[in-house]
Amino acid sequence: xxxxxxxxxxxxxxxxxxxxxxxxxxxxxxxxxxxxxxxxxxxxxxxxxxxxxxxxxxxxxxxxxxxxxxxxxxxxxxxxxxxxxxxxxxxxxxxxxxxxxxxxxxxxxxxxxxxxxxxxxxxxxxxxxxxxxxxxxxxxxxxxxxxxxxxxxxxxxxxxxxxxxxxxxxxxxxxxxxxxxxxxxxxxxxxxxxxxxxxxxxxxxxxxxxxxxxxxxxxxxxxxxxxxxxxxxxxxxxxxxxxxxxxxxxxxxxxxxxxxxxxxxxxxxxxxxxxxxxxxxxxxxxxxxxxxxxxxxxxxxxxxxxxxxxxxxxxxxxxxxxxxxxxxxxxxxxxxxxxxxxxxxxxxxxxxxxxxxxxxxxxxxxxxxxxxxxxxxxxxxxxxxxx
Length: 387
Prior knowledge:
Layout: H1 8-27, H2 45-59, H3 65-80, H4 86-102, H5 105-130, H6 136-216, H7 220-248, H8 264-273, E1 277-283, H9 290-310, E2 315-323, E3 326-334, H10 348-359, E4 363-369, E5 372-380, H11 381-386
């Protein structure tokens, strides 16, 4: 298997170490004299073998750090039996440093333990054998050459890992913030769509139905009555639009009052003016939280709008009751084939009512029940208070 391609910076280190070692050999500088007892191969040329080996290990310091350390250890052992080169020793310390910094975590821990034990052994064993204080210098040399680079590499690795973890945390925080922002924007857009639909759809539906009736019936009195209803609903719808635009412009203009259950009477009167036969039966103690009041009002409003668009002639009943901590809203209207003008529907009203109930932890269902189309919503009053 081919070895990985060396990093460009490692090539520079290997070339610098090799050239520096050749320069030291050329000027005759070595770490030990030829008369040293452990020098088995004297002369300048044997020094070149470990020098070249360590320079080759520097090429692998980042690409294959464990392989470089194993080969480098053999090279430094070979350098011990020659006159030695300072460049070889320096490159070996860098190989240890790189093995701890770039190698696997388990290998980095083992290298620290091994170099630490070698330092301790290099200090105690010579002193125990020779009983000379100068023997302690062997341990110092071993510590500088082996344990020092390993400890430095471990410190740098910890700082690098901490910086990488901090970067990942920052990226995750930014991602979560972006997700929260996206969800907040989506929720706000859905809320604005519900409010716009509920505030304006009722008036536009009445305008569409009465304008169709005015065009289909050629009676001046009927047309005049339809035009009056159209004008009333268009003015009211325009006022609602202006209030909504004021809200979207960060409070530009008069603030709009939040609808409450006390406004259901006016809402029913408006539905009667549009031609619906509506009865209201509201029974609650008046302590309903504002979010629940708004949701109940909008559900009744949208149900009356749907009755105006789709219901058959007949009585529409609206009932509200508070039982066991829940506010129950039910609107029933005649169900079946309808004669006369009708406005098209998109289904957004049912979706909005279901969303309003779900946001408060309530339930919602709508569908035919015998000869009636019934909208039924249960809104928890206690959860509404907690919001």
